[in-house]
Structures are given as C-alpha cells and as structure tokens.
Inverse folding.
C-alpha cells in the first residue's frame, strides 16, 4: 500500500468515526422532543378513594360523555 | 384485530417484528377523526398508523416509547412514555408528549420525574385521556396514582 493509499484509508476511517460520533450524539439527544413547553401543572390526590381502598397500578383511564372518569 | 359492532370478527394483521406493519408489544391504540388507526408499538419505539383496512400509512418516533395513546375530538394526540431510558430508547425522557395527529408535530412535553430511569425498565405514565375541558388525566403504574393536569 502506497503512502497515498494509507493516507486515504486513514482519512476514510476518520470520516467514518466522525459520522459515527455524530450519529451517536444525535441518538442520545432529542431535545426537540424533550424540551418543548410544558403548559400543564399537576393536581395531586384530587381523586378521593373510599376509606380502606388504595390505588394500584393505574394502567388505563377514559372519560365518558359527561366527563365522568373510568379507571382500571 | 377488527370486529364489527355485533362482535363479528373482520380481520387481523401484523406479526412480531420491527418492519412496517410488524409490531412488538402493541400496547395501546386510538383513532383520529379521519378514521386512521394509531398503534403504540412500544418495543419498537414508535407509533404506527394504519387505514381502516390495515394498510400501513406511516410511523412516528417523535412521541418516544409509547405505552398509551389517546386522540381527542380535535385530533390532539396524547402519548405517555413509561419506558424510555438510555438502554431502551436513547435520547428520550419519560413523560407525556402532546402533539397533532394530523401531522405528528410534538407541541408539549410533561416530564415524569423519577430519580434514575436508567435503573428501571418500566415506571410511570401508562393510562391517558382528556375531558371536554382539555384537562388531562394520567394513570401511573409504579407510583400507583391517578393525576389530573390542568393548563397553567
């Protein structure tokens, strides 16, 4: 392999590493989907359960036409 | 799967995989005003969109690793992500992403605050809906609670 060939291989390797690093950086940062505004504030403990009843894992919730809340 | 209103089976589609129309843990679904079906294809970190006949239309990754999806009458889409971390979906935080079902633009993000999401494979928001006033309700698993969110 000539000196020029070795230089081209090294250059190609550098480009590959640079592209790989850029891709890795992009993959680890998605600010456009994490840093958009948060226009909401939470209201904690607003739903009151009867005495002796406790929340489990709440996996599904829906609202009916009268805005009643259904929870499982 | 699709059934008629009288319970008659109409059709099913998809198989386990990561290609268009394939799914890995289809965890939730919702439909927009045009009748397009949005499937939370959780392990593939995407929302897949189908027409009424099951034809693949598009896939969106900007809503994170979806555990729950809800679309209101104005085609505002709410997607809860309870599993993103460095190993499972690098670059995405867990929480609620709100956007437009029409074009997929993410317009808001409500983070789910936890001390170390990288040590937990599943925690946080899974149930999601909103009422006629635009209040948002989120069911949480690890924290075992139902939260109400109102506009600031």
């Amino acid at each position: 392999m000539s000196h020029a060939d070795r230089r081209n291989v090294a250059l190609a390797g550098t480009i590959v590493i640079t592209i790989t690093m850029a891709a890795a950086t992009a993959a680890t940062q998605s600010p456009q989907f994490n840093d958009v505004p948060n226009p909401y504030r939470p209201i904690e403990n607003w739903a009151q359960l009867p005495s002796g009843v406790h929340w489990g894992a709440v996996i599904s919730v829906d609202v009916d036409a009268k805005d009643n809340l259904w929870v499982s | 799967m699709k059934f008629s209103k009288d319970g008659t089976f109409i059709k099913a589609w998809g198989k386990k995989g990561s290609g268009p129309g394939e799914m890995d843990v289809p965890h939730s679904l919702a439909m927009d005003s045009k009748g397009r079906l949005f499937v939370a294809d959780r392990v593939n970190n995407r929302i897949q969109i189908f027409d009424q006949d099951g034809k693949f239309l598009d896939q969106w990754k900007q809503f994170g690793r979806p555990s729950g999806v809800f679309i209101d009458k104005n085609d505002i889409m709410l997607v809860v992500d309870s599993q993103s971390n460095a190993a499972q979906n690098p670059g995405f935080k867990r929480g609620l992403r709100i956007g437009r079902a029409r074009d997929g633009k993410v317009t808001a993000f409500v983070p789910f605050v936890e001390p170390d999401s990288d040590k937990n494979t599943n925690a946080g928001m899974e149930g999601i809906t909103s009422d006629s006033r635009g209040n948002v309700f989120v069911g949480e698993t690890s924290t075992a609670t139902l939260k109400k969110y109102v506009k600031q």
